[in-house]
Request: fold
Amino acid sequence: MVFKQVGNDRPYPDHARTAKEWAEIPPRPVRLNQLITTKSVLDLNSVLATDSTFYGDLFPHVIRWHGELYLEDGLHRALRAALQQRSVLHVRVLDLD
Reply:
């Protein structure tokens, strides 16, 4: 199993963080099998694109809520890491617990 669970929504409250505020959170390693996705659909072209992070944050965004880790942004990067047989991904974690 790649992810802990595949979800299709965001069970946590809106955090209203800006890109600048996300950038202030230092990235840290997280195992893919600890993440719960908030999207169940992705665009295969985005997964395979070599410049998929060109306009965004290099690190996926994860929300800690009630002890769980929700992958808010970066599903394509996480899946690409899994396809490369990596079990750990560096992410920015916003703790809402």
Notes: The helical segments are 19-23, 44-48, 75-83.
